Known about the structure:
The chain has about 200 residues and is an alpha+beta fold. It has a single domain (about 25-200), classed as Roll (Nuclear Transport Factor 2, Chain: A). Helix content is about 60%, strand content about 20%. The chain has eight helices and five strands. It has a five-stranded antiparallel β-sheet. Strand 3 and strand 4 (about 155-165) form a beta hairpin. It is globular, with a radius of gyration of 20 Å. The N and C termini lie far apart (about 70 Å). The model is unreliable at about 1-20 (pLDDT under 50).
Amino acid sequence: xxxxxxxxxxxxxxLTALPAFAAIDADEAENFVKKITKEGIEEIIDSDVSQKEKxxxxxxxxxxxxxxxxxxxxxxxxxxxTASQAQKNEFIEVYRRLNVKTWSKRFDEFKxxxxxxxxxxxxxxxxxxxxxxxxPMDQGKPAAVVWRxxxxxxxxxxxxxxxxxxxxxxTARNEYTTFISKSPDALNGLISDLKKKxxxx
Length: 201
C-alpha cells in the first residue's frame, strides 16, 4: 500500500514538474538574440575592416549562434532520413560555408541601424520560441525580423530567421527538396550545385 502511494505521489510530481522544466526562458531567449545582433552590428557590419575579415568574424558568430545540424535536418526534409552520414556531414559543411558568405554580405543592409526588440511569441514546437524585432529602414516601414530560437538546457540557438514573413529555413527547404526530387544525382546533385554557388561567391 505504501509503495503504491509513493508511486502515485512520485508520478504526480513528475506530471507537475516536467512542464516547468520544458518551458523555454523567454527573457533569456530575447537577451541571447540581442547579444548576437549587437555583436553582429558592432563587430562586423559597422566595423571598418576588409570583407575577408568580416567573413571570418561572421563565420565565428554564425557557428556560435545557429544550430546548423538542426537547420540542415529541417531543410533536407525527408531526404535527411535516407542520407548517409557522409552525405549529411558534407551537406552541413557546404551549407554552412555558403550561408556564411551570403549573409556576411547581405547583412551590410543593416549597416548603421539597430534592431528594436518587441518581446517574444510562443511556438508550437517543443523548446522553441519566437523573438520579435524590427529594423528601421531608410525608406518605408521598418523591416520585421523574427528569430526562431531553440533552448537546450541552458544553451540557446537560432534555428530560423523570418524576414518580412519569409522564413529562410522554409525557403531553403522548398528549394532544396524540389532540386533533389528533380536531380538524377539526388542529394549528391544538390551538394555539387551548392559547391558551385560557393565558388561563385
